[in-house]
Amino acid sequence: MKKISKILFSIFVLSVIITTAKSQNIKEYNLYINDTIVNYTGKNKKAIAVNGQIPMPTLYFTEGDTAIVNVYNNMHHETSIHWHGLLLPNEQDGVPYLTTAPIEPMSTHQFKFVIRQSGTYWYHSHTMLQEQIGMYGAIVIHKPDEPVVNEEVILLSEWSDENPHEIEHSLHYANDWYAIKKNAVQSYGEALKSGNFKTKLANEWKRMNAMDVSDVYYERFLINGASEQKAGTYKAGDKVRLRIINGSASTYFWLTYSGGKISVVASDGMDVEPVEVDRFIVGTSETYDVVVTIPADGRAYELLATSEDRTGSASLWLGDGMKQAAKPLPRLKYFEGMKMMNDMMTMGGNMKDMGMNMSLQQMDMNTVMYPEITGGEMSDMSSMQDSTSHAHHSGEQGDIVTLNYAMLKSPVKTTLPDVFFRTLNFELTGNMNRYVWTINNKTVSESDKILIKKGENIRIVIYNNSMMRHPMHLHGHFFR
User: Fold this and answer.
1) Tens digit of pLDDT for each residue in 351-394?
2) What angle do CA 453, 472, 248 make, to 5 degrees?
3) Of the four listed, 154, 167, 312, 456, which is most buried by Cβ atoms within 10 Å?
4) How far is residue 355's CA from residue 357's CA, in Å, rounded to a whole number?
């Protein structure tokens, strides 16, 4: 009798647990972090795997779920996880020594928070440079009662056989090693050979480095951990939602599709009014949801992710049949970039004021270097401004529609409360040679607090007075 009572009591407890879990919509994951060895290039190299894989597992939630993530750090060094773009209590944000304690070696940490949004996001280590060697993964959050559609997660990244700390060390000592590996040195010999000797002299006179589109040379570029991948089986006429995440350490990617137009439907997790483009660039840590259609001729079509410096790419094939490749992006015209740089920079090394043309990515400083856009030679800033003043560009491939932020519009009203706007002005400054970056001429260690109050309307104006892109991320905040 006692045995039956115990069994009945156990069943009762189990049913209570199940009922409670269902009422709270708990979604629980276990993440096991281990050191590992990978081989992307024919050489064995150290990396970090989570649940035995790189990238980390894709985490799926529904808006309203309570997320519980148990992290088991099986390494002999500390780690952390930051939930990039998620709105959550500050102590759950995952930045060690700032919001959350580091996850110590051989220890366990539990994250628990309510999912208050939907869309495409990602998560990654915020410790040392672990993100570069495997600690990055996708997050997909569906709306409640959302209809099921064809969808694929596309997590972009890159790989270097060089130790990430050696890469960082190299960047602080400006040298040409990465440019040599990219065949982008822009030497006097190359300048003479291509008829750009005057441009090289002007560049040296202003004491500027050669035109550099991205800082690091990478051996491989990856989609979901592979250079080439085939998506699920799709047939002609199918529409597929692609959840694109740039989980790279420093690479911007151009996205093109051999099957026609790309319809952009969400940006950084938020829905936008659909806009059709031929290509778009994804900054580090950005996410986009796009919809593509499989054409009706029974082929496999390529979604091509090309590094901004065009040294490599990764591919996802959609559909079955003979492969229809996307047109490769041609080599950049570096000396045209140098001409542009000479025109834009003062003798003191500051950038001339370009006005509102520079805002919202409506003006791409690198346009003069794109052979597929410019066609022939373009040698001055006025031609660059003309070619980038509209989303449509006339080039060798006809009209190419390139996405810029001004084309993105919310499908719902985003009016903020009718209270006073306080404006914060941030100037992004720094030294490219020493690879030291500052806001308003102060490093984080000099000034690490920006004080705002709950309920305030904050307008942030960012001035990028450098020749580099600077992706900016507001932890735990959404913004218009």
Assistant:
1) 555 554 556 666 676 776 677 776 644 333 333 334 333 344 43
2) 140
3) 154
4) 6
C-alpha angle 261-262-267 in degrees, rounded to nearest 5 = 155
Terminal alpha carbon distance of the chain: 65
- DSSP letters for 381-428: HHHHHHHHSSSEEEETTEEEEB--GGG---SS--PPPSSPEEEEEEEE
Measured CA to CA, the distance from residue 426 to residue 441 in angstroms comes to 10
Contact (CB, 8 A) for 405 and 280? no
The answer to whether the CB of 404 falls within 8 A of the CB of 267 is: no
Residue type, 249: A
Give the strand pairing for 136-142 and 436-439. unpaired
Per-residue model confidence (pLDDT) at position 363 = 63
Whole-number Å distance between alpha carbons of 251 and 229: 19
Contact call for residues 222 and 157 (beta carbons, < 8 A): yes
Task: Give the three-state DSSP class for 216.
Answer: coil
pTM equals 0.84
The sign one gets for the Cα dihedral 169, 172, 177, 181 is positive
Contact 71, 31 (CB under 8 A): yes
3-state secondary structure of 422: strand
DSSP string, 115-178: ----EEEEEE--STTGGGGT-EEEEEEEPTTPPP--EEEEEEEEE-SS-HHHHHHHHTS--SHH
% of the chain at pLDDT higher than 90: 54
Decide: 246 and 255 in contact? Cβ < 8 Å. Answer: no
Q: What is the C-alpha separation between 285 and 26, in angstroms, rounded?
A: 27
Amino acid at 182: K
pLDDT(21) > 60: no
Cα 131 to Cα 133: distance, rounded to the nearest angstrom: 6
Residue 304: which H helix or E strand, with range? strand 300-307
Beta strands in 338-414 (DSSP E): 392-395, 398-401
Edge-to-edge strand list for the sheet holding 436-439: 436-439, 421-431, 457-464
